[in-house]
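Summary of Year 1 activities. Much of the first year was spent building the evaluation harness for sequence design. The harness presents a backbone, in tokenized form, and records the residue chosen at every position. We chose the following record to illustrate the format because it has been used consistently in internal testing since the harness was completed.
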């Protein structure tokens, strides 16, 4: 078994008997100009994902580099199709077999892209868990929620069946579902099922939680409820989180740092308040201005095709600061010490 799993507080609460493991993380290699404060739990370096299709090669992720430190939440934002889910699927090796993947994804010192399916199966659920958008797709209608959360604890591999049941009870009550473990999904409200799914993602003490659009399509009230619930399991386990969202307000309230993707590339990354208050990249600024609360100025034009990409800066056809030089080649990486962005001109 790979080392480095921290004993979770959920497990402590349920007084299971497993041993505390050591901690074998390596310091992430920082991007030029990017200062890493604290160690990275996850370091993605130069990730590129291509899909050969009949229409041509889809460039879904292009030279993506990101770090997530311990206990940190990184929000990944950007328009539909920009590559957010492909990055998440790369971390868990859930891409289809025909995907062409290059780069490195260091997690606790190991390059996940070098792991075989058996090793990866041990990472999924146990060290990295995933929260999806729709509980009805993640929960099985024929089992009680208590059973399903306990199953997730067993997949975690650090509990006996009795221990798993008590871990499930404890996390369900922490999420306001005390005494409901014996109920089936159809007996519970949508919000309660969402909580059961979040409990299942948190019960095995993951070091990293990946949440892909967990609040998409929910009423505003439920959005904040889900954010609070995710925070509860994150705090219980002292996990890090990769949060994929369209909702910049969810990112502002939940994340420590923000990465903005455009057409497969990360164009800006930095502390969430800095990026949202003083965006450096013209696309980050345009994205903010397109929000209803910020004047609702839609970004002119549309994202480039993932197959036929424009020369130079990918955003130049839609950028109000674009100059002829922006077509000349990929923009340089700029940094002010706290964050970095890719742009020819604007600072
Ligand atoms: N299996 C696949 N085969 C071919 N192309 C794919 C495949 N999966 C994703 N893509 C393409 O890769 C690009 C990135 O897709 P991805 O799902 O990561 O976007 P996203 O940012 O998560 O979008 P959304 O916000 O709509 O979920 C898109 O152009 C998409 O069409
Ligand atoms: Ni997606």
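For this record, the design step produced the sequence shown next.
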């Amino acid at each position: 078994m790979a080392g480095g799993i921290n004993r979770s507080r959920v497990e402590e609460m349920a007084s299971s008997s497993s041993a505390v493991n050591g901690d074998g993380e390596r310091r992430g290699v920082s991007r030029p100009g990017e200062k890493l404060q604290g160690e990275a739990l996850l370091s993605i370096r130069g990730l590129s994902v291509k899909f050969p299709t009949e229409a041509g090669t889809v460039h879904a992720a292009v030279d993506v580099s990101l770090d997530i430190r311990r206990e940190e939440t990184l929000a990944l934002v950007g328009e539909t199709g920009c590559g957010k889910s492909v990055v998440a699927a790369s971390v868990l090796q859930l891409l289809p077999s025909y995907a062409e993947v290059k780069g490195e994804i260091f997690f606790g010192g190991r390059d996940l892209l070098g792991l075989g399916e058996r090793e990866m199966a041990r990472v999924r659920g146990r060290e990295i868990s995933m929260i999806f958008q729709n509980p009805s797709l993640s929960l099985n209608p024929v089992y009680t929620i208590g059973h399903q959360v306990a199953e997730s604890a067993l997949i975690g591999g650090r509990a006996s069946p009795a221990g798993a049941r008590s871990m499930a009870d404890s996390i369900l009550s922490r999420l306001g579902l005390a005494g409901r473990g014996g109920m089936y999904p159809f007996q519970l409200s949508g919000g309660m099922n969402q909580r059961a799914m979040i409990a299942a993602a948190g019960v095995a003490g993951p070091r990293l939680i990946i949440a892909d659009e967990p609040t998409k399509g929910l009423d505003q009230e439920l959005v904040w409820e889900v954010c609070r619930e995710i925070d509860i399991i994150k705090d219980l386990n002292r996990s890090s989180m990769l949060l994929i969202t369209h909702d910049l307000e969810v990112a502002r309230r939940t994340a420590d740092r923000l990465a903005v993707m455009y057409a497969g590339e990360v164009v800006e990354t930095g502390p969430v308040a800095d990026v949202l208050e003083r965006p450096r990249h013209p696309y980050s600024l345009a994205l903010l201005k397109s929000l209803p609360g910020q004047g609702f100025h839609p970004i002119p034009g549309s994202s480039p095709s993932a197959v036929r990409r424009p020369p130079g800066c990918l955003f130049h056809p839609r950028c109000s600061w674009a100059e002829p030089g922006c077509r000349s080649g990929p923009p340089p990486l700029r940094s002010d010490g706290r964050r970095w962005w890719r742009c020819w001109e604007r600072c």
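The first strand starts at residue 40 and ends at 53. Quantitative recovery figures across the full test set are reported in Table 2.
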